[in-house]
Design goal:
Layout (H helix, E strand, L loop, with lengths): L6 H9 L3 H22 L13 E7 L6 E7 L1 E3 L2 E6 L9 H8 L2 E6 L2 E9 L2 H14 L2 H9 L6 E7 L1
Antiparallel strand pairs: 1-2, 1-5, 3-4, 4-7, 5-6, 6-7
């Protein structure tokens, strides 16, 4: 079994800081592979799970009104999953984050369970408390935060069960 602290996990963590990984590998390849793997295995496998705890978040498209599902890394804040809208350090907020700003009700598939949630944007002091944990789990977040500094704040959301 592959492990996050194994040779592949260490290599992927290093690659996460390269601009080509932030612009191509993560958003164009890995997220699509995770969606396909999740669908084919009926939620039993995602590539992201080899590196960190992850979930599938389904939001409602703010323009289309259609369901939109995306794989995301998640962290625990007092028993509630938290997701980070880093968008691989790009200048704009990810679409799923913009969707949650309009409609905070969503669905999460995590640890084999599907749960209806309401997204709550974390307050600045909560976000500061989460950053060290986030960077321990995925060091690329430090780079993402640095590259977006002065352009946008990276949003964090607690996905509280309804």
């Amino acid at each position: 079994m592959l492990r996050a602290d194994g040779w592949l996990g260490r290599r992927l963590r290093r690659w996460a800081n390269h601009p080509w990984a932030r612009q191509f590998l993560g958003p164009k390849v890995l997220t699509r592979l995770d969606r396909v793997a999740h669908r084919l295995t009926r939620g039993r496998f995602r590539f992201a799970d080899l590196l960190f705890d992850s979930l599938m978040l389904t939001t409602t498209g703010r323009r289309s009104g259609q369901p939109r599902t995306v794989p995301l890394a998640c962290f625990d804040l007092d028993g509630v999953p938290v997701v980070i809208a880093s968008n691989f350090g790009r200048e704009q907020h990810p679409a799923w984050s913009r969707n949650l700003e309009v409609e905070p009700r969503a669905t999460v598939e995590h640890a084999g369970r599907r749960t209806a949630v309401t997204a709550r944007r974390l307050r600045p002091e909560e976000q500061e408390r989460m950053w060290p944990q986030a960077i321990r789990v995925w060091p690329g977040y430090a780079t993402y935060r640095h590259t977006t500094e002065g352009i946008r704040d990276i949003r964090m959301y607690a996905l509280e069960p309804r």
